[in-house]
Amino acid sequence: MNMTRHFFSMIFLLSMGCAPAEHFVSLENSDAIVGGEITTLKSPVAKYVVLVIDDDSGSYCTGTLIRANVVLTAAHCLGKRGDGLTLAFGRNPMSGNYIARRSAAVVVHPDYKKANSQDPHDLALILIDGSAPHSFAPAKIPDSSFPMQKNLGFTAIGYGRISGKSPQGIGVLRDTQLKVSHLTQSQKQFYVNQENGKGICNGDSGGPALMRYKGADYIVGVASAIYWTIPSSVRADQRADYISKKDTCAEKSIYINLKSHQTWLSQALLQLLN
């Protein structure tokens, strides 16, 4: 059966829902990223990530340290100014418990296009003014031999909300275990099924898919978008109400596959660090 005959598909980039700080709600329970757990101080993955705040808009995303002074994130997370970003290192920055750094420069993938959902190149690097705190460390980047394939498990981690219906959970670092549903034909992206109540949501944009391989943690993907559908049975005049009640983070998510972006990443690091 041709599913396109029965569903009107819509893709919403997470940048459309990167929540402003004033919507932050502090939670005392263990709900997480979506269906995960609050990342503890002892977590082996907490040392890799940072909250990326666009000073101009007040919106924020998640980023991953890949050098002592370089953060990898999604291109749609960046504002208009390369020096207009605050990097907040900590598990709960919104509580005031964090170490701040400023951005010195950024490099955005030259082919990044918000409208091109088939191959968006949604990647960017941020140069830190100085370096990350000593308790943080860079994750490794996969090379061409890395075994990236369907059904591989990984850890998703980010500062996003716990549901597509509300801003609850925003600003608290959480993680959960996911797996690659399938890779796109171009191998530039991979999809994750989130219908089981686990996954990423608004605010997790730019965050990593971390995979342990041969005793080291590799960032194999960068959170780029959430994907959801509107059934064809929903009339045009009903869509606004349908969307307002829908958990938009409960279907699928899309990651940029770093293994297929090695050339750009190497060139961007040279450009940023030289």
List keywords for this structure.
nine-stranded antiparallel beta sheet, 7% helix, disordered N terminus, 274 residues, Thrombin, subunit H, mainly beta, six-stranded antiparallel barrel
Topology:
Elements: E1 7-13, E2 37-38, E3 49-54, E4 60-67, E5 70-73, E6 85-92, E7 97-108, E8 124-128, E9 153-158, E10 174-179, E11 182-183, E12 189-193, E13 208-213, E14 216-231, H1 239-245, E15 252-257, H2 262-273
Antiparallel strand pairs: 1-14, 2-10, 3-4, 3-6, 4-5, 5-8, 6-7, 7-8, 9-10, 9-13, 11-12, 12-15, 13-14, 14-15
CATH top level assignment: Mainly Beta
Low-pLDDT residue spans: 1-32
Distance between the termini: 54 Å
Mean pLDDT: 83
Number of domains: 1
| Coarse structural class | mainly beta
Number of contiguous helices: 2
H/E series = EEEEEEEEEEEEEEHEH
CATH architecture: Beta Barrel
Q: What is the third-level CATH name, the topology?
A: Thrombin, subunit H
Number of strands: 15
| Main sheet record | 9 strands, antiparallel
Question: From the alpha-carbon coordinates, what is the Rg to the nearest angstrom?
Answer: 18 Å
Q: Helicity level, as a percent range?
A: under 10%
CATH homology-level superfamily:
Trypsin-like serine proteases
Describe what is shown at a glance.
This protein is mainly beta and 274 residues long.
Description:
- The chain has a single domain (3-273), classed as Thrombin, subunit H (Beta Barrel), CATH 2.40.10.
- Helix content is 7%, strand content 36%.
- The protein contains two helices and 15 strands.
- Residues 1-32 have low confidence and may be disordered.
